[in-house]
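Input record, target 12 of the design panel.
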């Protein structure tokens, strides 16, 4: 047994095991106080985390609502563009058929008008130059095996060349 002095000079006996028990109790009390402080901090953090989670959930709800509206608007725009493309295709088809119709109706007369103009220009040129008129055209008939048009073209060229040679000699 050990004597531990007190503040008045009196001593009371303390056993070694009693000192160990007191030390363990003090340590356990300090440990318990540390745990209580840690639990209080954890509870505060948990409350703050719950508040933050609730705020994030509200924000997510709002954003999902906006996203839904945006998707609906995009769907309406796609439908509108689809209708516009359909209209453009119909217009293109109508213009194409009208173009073919006009081309078919105008091409024949236009070719004839160009041929008439070309013939008039050639005739006026021959009149101005004083060249003898061309012989009458060969009678039209079915093309022969040797090529009716080609033969007439050669005959015209031969007549024209002969007229040019005669004119050149006359000078």
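The sequence produced for target 12 reads:
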């Amino acid at each position: 047994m050990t004597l531990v002095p007190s503040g008045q000079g009196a001593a009371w006996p303390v056993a070694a095991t009693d000192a160990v028990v007191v030390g363990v109790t003090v340590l356990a009390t300090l440990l318990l106080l540390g745990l209580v402080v840690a639990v209080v901090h954890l509870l505060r953090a948990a409350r703050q985390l719950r508040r933050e989670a609730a705020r994030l959930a509200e924000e997510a709800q709002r954003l999902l609502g906006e996203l839904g509206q945006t998707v609906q608007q995009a769907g309406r725009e796609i439908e509108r563009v689809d209708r516009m493309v359909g209209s453009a295709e119909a217009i293109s088809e109508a213009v194409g058929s009208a173009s073919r119709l006009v081309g078919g109706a105008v091409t024949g007369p236009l070719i004839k008008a160009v041929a008439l103009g070309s013939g008039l220009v050639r005739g006026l040129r021959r009149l101005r130059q004083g060249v003898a008129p061309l012989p009458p055209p060969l009678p039209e008939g079915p093309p022969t095996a040797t090529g009716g048009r080609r033969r007439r073209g050669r005959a015209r060229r031969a007549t024209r060349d002969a007229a040019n040679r005669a004119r050149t000699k006359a000078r």
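The two ends are 167 Å apart (CA to CA).
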